[in-house]
Give the backbone structure.
Amino acid sequence: MSNTGKIFCIVASNGVSLLNFRGAFIRELVSLGHRVVCVSIEPASELSAQLAALGAEYRQVCGDRTGIGLLSGLKMIRGYRRLFRELRPDHCFLYMSKPIAFGGIAAIRCKLPHIHILVNGLENAYYRHGLKDALVRFVMSAFYKHVSRQADNVFFQNPDDRNYFLEHRLLPRDNSSLVNGSGVDMQHFAKAELPKDPIILMVARLLWSKGIREFLKAVRTVKLQHPELKVLLVGGLDDNDEALSQDELQSFIEEFDIEYCGYAEDVRPYLRRCSIFVLPSYHEGLPRSVLEAMAVGRPIISTDVPGCRETVIEGENGFLVPAKDAAALAEKMLLLVENPELRQKMAESSFQICLERFEVGKVNQSMLKKIFVEPQN
């Protein structure tokens, strides 16, 4: 069977991620002669033109990003089934939890010839306790197991998530592999000279699980010794149940004397301004924001948790601290704030590590080699 001229569906539940995280992947598929149809929940007016510029089409399947309501799930499955029956794609690439669960069921029922899933991090319910979270884990694990059984490839962005699937028998057969995140376009995120002054930056959705609380506490500690220190925070408010409210955000801006920059379509100006990049998240798939900072050439402080630990070689391009430990985070911030030579050394190491492991072309090629090889049953 020829590997050219296929219909390739890429299914997400966040249309912006199709552009920001899968853009290079889409362009590569189009350049190979495939018809690429991207699917998400946003109206066509928000995405069609931008995806058309990449050579792809866009289709909407109605739904929402959060919750696992039965009626909502059934509606999404019906939407995916209608779309797959119309398009009859040769390859279906699903990522994010709802597309994997509901899109995966639809793809199996439509008997699509090739199904590929990317587990780009586990949901918060896999890291929290409580009855509701236990129910979400139970339901999502059942979906993951069923879809993984039928998939040609199950891609993971870090070994911890793959080990979880193996330990809990969510991978019924050996069809999994690791990829180095979504990759980063190192021409777009070009290396930039490191500013001489220490300037700290955090880029993240404003969720507690991204480590916002610990970041702010650490900033307060560091500013007691360095009140002149500039601290930038980039990220938009969210409707997630872990999100900061507008009032909470405003009080933190005033209390901790930080420069809040809001949501940014393009984070490169902020990366160029900073000399220390911080992401104290509780868990990640593999954080794209950190990869972008590494590509620009910035030292990293992150947490020793799934996904984040894959980006930092301790003491070489940055530091890893325990999650939820504001004191440890402040200690490493102070070390970099007070040592310009160390910042410069780690900045260069970040760039080299990114070039060797996380350059987007290399990441995409590793997936395409798996996708376009006939599965071994």
About this structure: The mean pLDDT is 93. The radius of gyration is 21 Å. The chain has two domains: 7-183+360-371, 199-358.
